[in-house]
């Protein structure tokens, strides 16, 4: 039928605060698109990218989401790093019945048929990480988290899992975004003497915590769902400031299997200056191939047709991280979860790998996009199940 | 002794933003003279003083100091040639102490021409204006108007200038200190041969100080008065009335 | 009859010493521009129309800052506080009470009034405390940053007003767009042609009203305070009241911007009260030429459109180019780029005339 | 009843006693001059009367009412008006607009414009009407400030060195202006160092010294006072 | 013993906050307090100092020398910027907001384009000491000492040297200073350069403890501005006590209620102090002293 190119809008932060973690996402999309086009495109149609730099500014997401949907008339959008930017553009996607991929780990809970999420969510990262840590280091846990939705909701997950597993919270501290000085926090942790520390620090300023903690001789095992995998702090700080840090990630550059190695190699060939290929870069890369599969199976870029494909429940692929599938109820993705351990010299080892961890939570609380589309974001303390019962 | 021309202007034009105020001023000041410039409000007396020190660029004509043209010389370098400028409205440095204000004036003597040391000159200024010594640690902005005027004069004397440009020095000063200032200037002139050009409206001060006098109107020198006419109070007054 | 003459004298205030542009030439220009703006949607696509509405949204805040800073001489670094307060107020009101029976417009008015009230309280604290100059700038900046930081941590379900979750850093969404009640079914004003005309009408109204304000007795006193507050007081004016008045009006306009923006994108976020956003209105107003309403308005729209275009076409060099534009134009155009461009143009004209004459 | 009266007025700046227990009074319709050495506290006394500074002690009565704590603008509204020592005008506004702002509370429309023109003529600023006030010469600024002060049609006019920088003729003209205002019933309190001017206008003279009332009387009495000559006038003071 | 150790702990926390505020603010205090230029590129001079000193350290230069190098380079860049742009704006200081904001955009994004999104850190030297069972970073004590030393040196420069007097004169009434023989254009450059250099010093000192990214300067700017303004017109009379007051408020609130309270408390303290003292601490101190 239609033979023109398939247009994909890309809205990512190539400058500003988040650029450290997101320039690679654009590269991932470009890499996949080039490969696909070289191999004949999607269903015979070329993939064409309309890339905008959103400058880590929510307003730019609003401006450009309208632009790609209304002016460029793209078939699909890949957009957003921070959850705030996603919430900024989501009303616009909903208004124009667009289709957007959010390729980022986040606090979870988006139940919106116009959104497909390839990043990892808390149930995938914490249900694996926290029990492991408790078993290995003890049951007394301290959390420091960025004081916003992601940090607060993630901390809630940690708290619940710690309790379920018979542990206690030695303390919980929330740090406003942009804070870079941690002397008091470090002392609070020293006082509480936890068995391990969960760090849910976000943004470049907060990452300064690690350096400051070591220099105050605070050496406690650490666990995180966001650091290392997203911000590659182990590459940016001098060893051993991140030593003894455990991270659940769905993929990082160091993952040691043939598919992953080949992926890293072809990436560096195309982008030799890339400082680090992070987890979201891989998620973005995967997302392009998943989209290709959906369009090819639907024989159309029509959203309803694509959703019918998703509803079949077998949109899956073999990614650099392993086998992944899209969950039809939530339109989130299952992941292979790697437990990455940062060693003294900041090399990475993987003490444990969990295959096929599903994004089960949204489905459990009553999100089923095959049936209805609430276009909402739920949280553990605010979801249909809670208000229903 | 033949006196050299110290300061000279030739067909000087200047003004603000294209609007000419001075329209061809010619004057010459001999070394060691005390010369007054008089005229009604707004005729361009202050503009002349600013052009002489270099705070205003001249549009046409030139200013010569000791025979050298100053056209391309910025204000601070003119000052360092030994020209001390006391602006109308005083303009002391408000958030600095009296003593610090005085010290700034040292820059005029950056070349170290002055024969006496700075400390001596400081004492000399304190001798002329005792209130400055008494208030040497007060912030200049909180001085009374007349006190500020004394400070502004003291500030250039510290730099041992060879030429002083005074813009309405008597303004706001109590009568007996006006007399003092006139006396001090004359005394300095006699002792050190300092040259003084001053703008003034106060007849007593003009007559007490000036050896010669230029009358200005509408940006031009309209008359030159010699010592003989200066004797005659009413004659001078008539010139000011125009 | 008396009402007629008072209308006449009010209209006379459209021109005056405090506004550039007078006489038939200016007003015919004004009418031409307005007419062009009115027929614009006929020739533009939906995106451009909606995007222009978005630019218009910010212009109210800029005009308000021009009143406070350009005319009143008080640099407020925190107009975004009123923007945010009004935006959230609109969200809370409409999420709780819905969009039926024209309630979105009631909310627009109420939210703007809430911002004005907040400005009145803060302004009373500032001006009656004789805070001025940079101190005023830092206090207003601190206020907006406090709001930003506070709102950023309201992610939890305990932070709600009625059924409206504040929703922390991720921002509040799901509030309705402006909605006109209509017999055959309410008309929802998405960023499209009807909203364009509504916003344009508001903008023209506010612009003309502000022209009258600044040329009135009140405006005279405001500029007098900017020039020399002590002298103004010694002419018998209670300067604090006038400063407060200007501040409240200007801040209400920032609030109006906030409401319109929130309704436009169905979204409001704490970041809109942060440091970067707080600096933006100052940049627009200063670049355009802060001491005149017309240059402020044109400058703001120009900067907004220019920077957006740069971002679209400049990729990662956009920010560098924007920086260069500011660094080059501001020193070169002391009264703002609009007057700068104007005088460049007229100088060019003169030169050409001179050449032709020769 | 006195138009202006102070009782035991005191003002300290840190350790400096600038206004020291000043009892002062002047009658309605009087032209009174305040003289004294630089730093005697004359301008400070003005600022106290205007509410720019609040006194540390004592009371200020104007037209029978206690205004010690009143706000400045309230005092102006009651009929006081001032020309400061250092002219304070609206620099970036045109001369005409400066006057308009002073006049707009009393007049409007046509009569406002007429009054502005009349004042401009009187102040010899007609040619400068369209100029920015900041670009006036020093003397012109003083004239403008005087114009703004009298535009308020005050009952009590305070003039701090109104003739500084004026030629003798201009000084004389200013004196005549003061006398004309006085003939219209305006009370005038002027600070001056120009004895010719003081002699021309003053009905009574108060000498301040170190913040205290040092002498009081007619100009002839004051000029004849050797103590005043010693601290203030000097040899040729008898203008 | 327990009391002593908590006392030490509080002093350390307050001292830490004090050092951060003083070192962030000094450069701004010179540029803003002295020159009236609102320098929104302050954070980028900090960035410059941090990047230069870190690069030097990576090349094997000893840390103190690297920090000095960062200071000098930032100062030199500041002087260039003053010559090229800032000097055209002294008669309209508020426009410097916009221009320096532009400079800040160029610097931040330019750094990103030229040097990439991040630079590897060097690690914090000197290790830690233990007091009452808690570990404290020794380097933080060095920062506190550096803050005090910086204040002392600045005070000496501005009150005891001829440059200081001429700089203050130039900034207060430029045309008169010029007419009195002061090379005001040189004074301006040097003063701006000094301010920029102090920002560079701050960057160099904090570089080992922080994430090095092009946007790192923004972590300092708000704190720097509020400290300077609360201090008021006179940087020596004002900045140090302002930093001290704000540091105590921040440290107390942070330890009592957490970082959010510390942050918001700092800003609220700013609002209250200015409301009580509308001319800043300087105005207050001067009135008391006079
Ligand atoms: N900064 C300025 N910008 C524009 N015009 C100015 C400026 N300063 C002075 N003028 C104009 O230049 C003319 C001469 O001013 P100038 O100050 O030289 O007068 P003057 O003779 O010193 O008068 P006065 O006795 O009042 O001090 C006046 O008409 C004044 O309006
Ligand atoms: N804000 C202040 N802080 C400290 N001292 C001050 C302040 N204002 C004035 N003074 C001092 O108070 C004294 C009186 O000053 P004032 O200005 O009233 O004098 P004046 O009589 O008007 O003198 P002049 O004739 O020189 O104008 C002076 O010694 C002055 O230094
Ligand atoms: N989605 C995040 N990490 O904000
Ligand atoms: Mg003059
Ligand atoms: Mg006085």
From TrEMBL, chain B:
The keyword Transport applies. It comes from the Bacteria. InterPro entries: AAA+_ATPase (IPR003593), ABC_transporter-like_ATP-bd (IPR003439), BCAA_Transport_ATP-bd_LivF (IPR052156), P-loop_NTPase (IPR027417). Keywords: Amino-acid transport, ATP-binding, Nucleotide-binding, Transport. Residues 7-242 form the ABC transporter domain. One of its GO terms (molecular function) is ATP binding. Pfam families: ABC_tran. PANTHER family: HIGH-AFFINITY BRANCHED-CHAIN AMINO ACID TRANSPORT ATP-BINDING PROTEIN, HIGH-AFFINITY BRANCHED-CHAIN AMINO ACID TRANSPORT ATP-BINDING PROTEIN LIVF. Belongs to the ABC transporter superfamily. This is ABC transporter ATP-binding protein.
Automatic annotation (TrEMBL), chain C:
The keyword Membrane applies. The chain crosses the membrane at residues 25-43, 55-74, 104-127, 134-151, 195-214, 244-261, 267-287, 294-313, 319-345. Signal peptide: none annotated. Keywords: Cell membrane, Membrane, Transmembrane, Transmembrane helix. The keyword tRNA-binding does not apply. InterPro entries: ABC_transp_permease, LivM-like. It is found in: Cell membrane. It is a multi-pass membrane protein. It comes from the Bacteria. This is ABC transporter permease.
TrEMBL record, chain D:
The keyword Nucleotide-binding applies. It holds the Pfam family ABC_tran. The keyword ATP-binding applies. Gene3D superfamilies: P-loop containing nucleotide triphosphate hydrolases (3.40.50.300). GO terms for molecular function: ATP binding. Residues 4-235 form the ABC transporter domain. Transmembrane segments: none annotated. PROSITE patterns: ABC_TRANSPORTER_2. Keywords: ATP-binding, Nucleotide-binding, Transport. PANTHER family: CONSERVED COMPONENT OF ABC TRANSPORTER FOR NATURAL AMINO ACIDS-RELATED, HIGH-AFFINITY BRANCHED-CHAIN AMINO ACID TRANSPORT ATP-BINDING PROTEIN. This is ABC transporter ATP-binding protein. It comes from Jiella sonneratiae.
TrEMBL record, chain E:
Coiled coil: none annotated. Signal peptide: none annotated. Pfam families: BPD_transp_2 (PF02653). It comes from Jiella sonneratiae. This is Branched-chain amino acid ABC transporter permease. It is a multi-pass membrane protein. PANTHER family: ABC TRANSPORTER PERMEASE PROTEIN (PTHR11795:SF447), BRANCHED-CHAIN AMINO ACID TRANSPORT SYSTEM PERMEASE PROTEIN LIVH (PTHR11795). The chain crosses the membrane at residues 20-41, 61-81, 93-117, 137-158, 186-207, 219-248, 260-277. Belongs to the binding-protein-dependent transport system permease family. LivHM subfamily. Keywords: Amino-acid transport, Cell membrane, Membrane, Transmembrane, Transmembrane helix, Transport.
């Amino acid at each position: 039928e239609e033979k023109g190119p398939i247009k994909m809008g890309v809205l990512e932060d190539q400058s500003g605060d988040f650029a450290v973690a997101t320039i690679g996402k654009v590269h991932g999309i470009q890499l996949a698109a080039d490969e696909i086009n070289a191999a004949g495109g999607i269903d015979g149609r070329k993939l064409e990218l309309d890339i905008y730099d959103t400058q880590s500014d929510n307003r730019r997401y609003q401006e450009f989401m309208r632009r790609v949907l209304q002016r460029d008339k793209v078939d699909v959008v890949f957009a957003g790093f921070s959850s705030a930017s996603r919430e900024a553009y989501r009303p616009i996607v909903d208004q124009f019945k667009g289709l957007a991929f959010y390729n980022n780990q986040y606090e979870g809970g988006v139940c919106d048929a116009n959104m497909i999420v390839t990043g990892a969510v808390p149930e995938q990262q914490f249900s694996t990480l926290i029990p492991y840590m408790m078993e290995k280091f003890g049951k007394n846990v301290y959390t420091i988290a960025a004081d916003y939705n992601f940090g607060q909701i993630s901390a809630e997950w940690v708290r619940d899992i710690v309790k379920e597993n018979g542990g206690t919270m030695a303390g919980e501290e929330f740090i406003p975004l942009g804070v870079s000085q941690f002397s008091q926090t470090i002392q609070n942790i020293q006082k509480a003497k936890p068995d391990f520390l969960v760090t849910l620090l976000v943004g470049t300023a907060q990452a300064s915590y690690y350096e400051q903690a070591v220099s105050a001789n605070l050496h406690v095992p650490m666990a995180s769902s966001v650091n290392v995998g997203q911000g590659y702090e182990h590459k940016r700080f001098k060893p051993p400031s991140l030593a003894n840090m455990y991270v659940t990630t769905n993929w990082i550059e160091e993952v040691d299997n043939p598919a992953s190695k080949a992926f890293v190699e072809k990436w560096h060939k195309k982008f030799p200056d890339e400082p680090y290929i992070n987890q979201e870069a891989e998620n973005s890369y995967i997302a392009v191939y998943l989209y290709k599969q959906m369009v090819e199976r639907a024989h159309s870029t029509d959203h309803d047709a694509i959703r019918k494909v998703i509803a079949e429940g077998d949109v899956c692929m073999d990614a650099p991280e392993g086998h992944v599938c899209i969950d039809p109820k939530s339109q989130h993705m299952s992941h292979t979860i790697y437990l990455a351990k940062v060693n003294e010299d900041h090399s990475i080892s993987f003490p444990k790998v969990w295959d096929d961890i599903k994004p089960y939570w949204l489905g459990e609380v009553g999100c089923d996009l095959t049936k209805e589309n609430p276009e909402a974001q739920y949280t553990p303390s605010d979801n249909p199940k809670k208000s229903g019962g | 002794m033949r006196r050299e021309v110290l300061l000279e202007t030739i067909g000087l034009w200047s003004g603000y933003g294209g609007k000419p105020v001075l329209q061809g001023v010619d004057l010459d000041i001999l070394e060691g003279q005390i010369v007054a410039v008089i005229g009604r409000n707004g005729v361009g007396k202050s503009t002349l003083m600013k052009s002489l020190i270099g705070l205003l660029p001249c549009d046409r004509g030139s200013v010569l100091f000791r025979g050298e043209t100053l056209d391309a010389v910025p204000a601070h370098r003119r000052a360092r040639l030994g020209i001390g400028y006391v602006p109308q409205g005083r303009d002391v440095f408000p958030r600095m102490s009296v003593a610090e204000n005085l010290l700034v004036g040292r820059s005029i003597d950056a070349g170290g021409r002055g024969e006496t040391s700075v400390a001596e000159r400081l004492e000399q200024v304190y001798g002329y204006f005792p209130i400055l010594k008494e208030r040497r640690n007060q912030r200049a902005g909180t001085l009374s108007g007349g006190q500020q005027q004394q400070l502004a004069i003291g500030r250039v004397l510290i730099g041992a200038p060879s030429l002083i440009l005074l813009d309405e020095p008597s303004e706001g000063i109590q009568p007996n200190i006006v007399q003092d200032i006139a006396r001090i200037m004359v005394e300095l002139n006699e002792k050190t041969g300092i040259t003084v050009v001053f703008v003034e409206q106060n007849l007593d001060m003009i007559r007490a100080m000036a050896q010669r006098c230029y009358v200005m109107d509408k940006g031009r020198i309209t008359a030159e008065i010699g010592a003989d006419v200066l004797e005659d109070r009413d004659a001078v007054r008539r010139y000011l009335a125009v | 009859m008396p009402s007629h003459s008072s209308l006449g004298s009010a209209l006379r205030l459209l021109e005056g010493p405090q506004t550039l542009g007078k006489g038939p030439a200016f007003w015919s220009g004004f009418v031409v521009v307005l007419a062009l703006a009115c027929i614009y949607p006929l020739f533009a696509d939906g995106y451009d129309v909606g995007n222009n509405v978005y630019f218009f949204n910010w212009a109210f805040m800029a005009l308000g800052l021009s009143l406070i800073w350009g005319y009143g001489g008080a640099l407020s670094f925190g107009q975004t506080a009123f923007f945010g307060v009004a935006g959230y107020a609109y969200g809370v009101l409409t999420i709780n009470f819905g969009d039926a029976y024209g309630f979105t417009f009631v909310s627009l008015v109420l939210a703007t009034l809430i911002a004005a009230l907040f400005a009145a309280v803060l302004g009373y604290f500032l001006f009656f405390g004789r805070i001025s100059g940079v101190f005023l700038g830092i206090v207003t900046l601190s206020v907006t940053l406090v709001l930003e930081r506070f709102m950023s941590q309201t992610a939890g379900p305990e932070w709600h007003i009625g059924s409206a979750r504040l929703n922390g850093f991720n921002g509040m969404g799901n509030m309705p767009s402006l909605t006109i009640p209509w017999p055959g079914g309410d008309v929802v004003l998405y960023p499209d042609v009807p909203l364009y005309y509504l916003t344009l009408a508001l903008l023209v109204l506010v612009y003309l009203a502000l022209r009258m304000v600044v040329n009135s007795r009140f405006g005279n006193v405001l500029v007098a305070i900017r020039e020399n507050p002590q002298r103004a007081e010694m002419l018998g004016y209670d300067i604090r009241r006038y400063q407060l008045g200007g501040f409240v009006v200007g801040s209400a306009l920032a609030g109006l911007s906030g409401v319109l923006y929130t309704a436009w994108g169905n979204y409001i976020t704490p970041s809109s009260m942060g440091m970067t956003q707080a600096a933006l209105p100052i940049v627009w107003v200063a670049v355009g030429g802060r001491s005149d309403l017309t240059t402020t308005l044109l400058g703001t729209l120009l900067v907004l459109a220019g920077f957006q275009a740069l971002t679209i076409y400049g990729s990662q060099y956009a920010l560098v180019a924007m920086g260069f534009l500011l660094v080059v134009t501001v020193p070169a155009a002391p009264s703002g780029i609009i007057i700068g461009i104007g005088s460049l143009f007229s100088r060019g004209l003169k030169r050409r005339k001179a050449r032709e004459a020769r | 009843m006195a138009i202006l009266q102070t009782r035991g007025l005191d003002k300290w700046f840190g350790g400096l006693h600038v206004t020291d227990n000043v009892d002062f009074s002047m009658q309605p319709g009087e032209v009174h001059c305040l003289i004294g050495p630089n730093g005697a506290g004359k301008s400070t006394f003005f600022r106290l009367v205007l509410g720019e500074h609040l006194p540390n002690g004592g009371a200020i009565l104007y037209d029978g009412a206690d205004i010690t704590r009143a706000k400045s603008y309230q005092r102006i509204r009651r009929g006081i008006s001032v020309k400061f020592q250092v002219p304070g005008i609206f620099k970036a506004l045109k001369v005409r607009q400066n006057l308009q702002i002073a006049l707009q509370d009393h007049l409007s429309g046509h009569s406002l414009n007429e009054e502005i023109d009349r004042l401009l003529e009187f102040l010899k600023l007609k040619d400068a009407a369209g100029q920015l006030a900041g670009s006036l010469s020093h003397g012109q600024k003083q004239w403008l400030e005087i114009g703004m002060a009298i535009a308020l049609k005050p009952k009590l006019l305070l003039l701090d060195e109104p003739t500084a920088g004026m030629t003798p003729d201009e000084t004389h003209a200013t004196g005549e202006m003061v006398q004309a205002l006085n003939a219209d019933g305006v009370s005038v309190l002027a600070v001056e160092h120009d004895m010719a001017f003081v002699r021309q206008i003053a009905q009574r003279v108060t000498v301040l010294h170190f913040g205290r009332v040092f002498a009081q009387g007619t100009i002839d009495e004051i000029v004849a006072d050797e103590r005043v000559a010693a601290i203030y006038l000097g040899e040729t003071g008898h203008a | 013993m327990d009391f002593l150790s908590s006392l030490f702990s509080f002093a350390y926390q307050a001292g830490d906050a004090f050092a951060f505020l003083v070192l962030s603010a000094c450069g701004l205090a010179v540029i803003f307090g002295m020159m009236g230029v609102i320098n929104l590129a302050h954070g980028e001079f900090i960035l410059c100092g941090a990047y230069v000193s870190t690069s030097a350290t990576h090349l094997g230069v000893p840390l103190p020398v690297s920090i000095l190098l960062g200071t000098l380079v930032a100062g030199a860049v500041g002087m260039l910027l003053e010559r090229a742009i800032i000097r055209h704006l002294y008669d309209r200081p508020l426009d410097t907001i916009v221009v320096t904001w532009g400079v800040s955009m160029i610097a931040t994004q330019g750094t990103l384009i030229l040097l990439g999104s991040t630079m590897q850190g060097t690690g914090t030297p000197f290790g830690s000491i233990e007091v009452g069972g808690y570990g404290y970073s020794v380097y933080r004590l060095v920062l506190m000492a550096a803050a005090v030393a910086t204040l002392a040196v600045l005070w000496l420069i501005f009150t005891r040297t001829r440059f200081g007097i001429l700089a203050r004169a130039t900034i207060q009434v430029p045309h008169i200073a010029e007419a009195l023989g002061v090379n005001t254009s040189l004074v301006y450059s040097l003063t701006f350069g000094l301010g920029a250099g102090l920002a560079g010093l701050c960057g160099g000192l904090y570089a080992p403890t922080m994430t090095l990214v092009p946007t790192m300067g923004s972590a300092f700017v708000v704190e720097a501005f509020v400290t300077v303004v609360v201090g008021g017109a006179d940087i020596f009379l004002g900045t140090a006590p302002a930093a001290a007051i704000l540091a105590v408020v921040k440290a107390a609130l942070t330890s009592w209620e957490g970082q959010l309270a510390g942050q918001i408390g700092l800003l609220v303290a700013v609002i209250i102090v200015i409301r009580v003292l509308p001319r800043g601490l300087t105005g207050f101190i001067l009135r008391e002293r006079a």
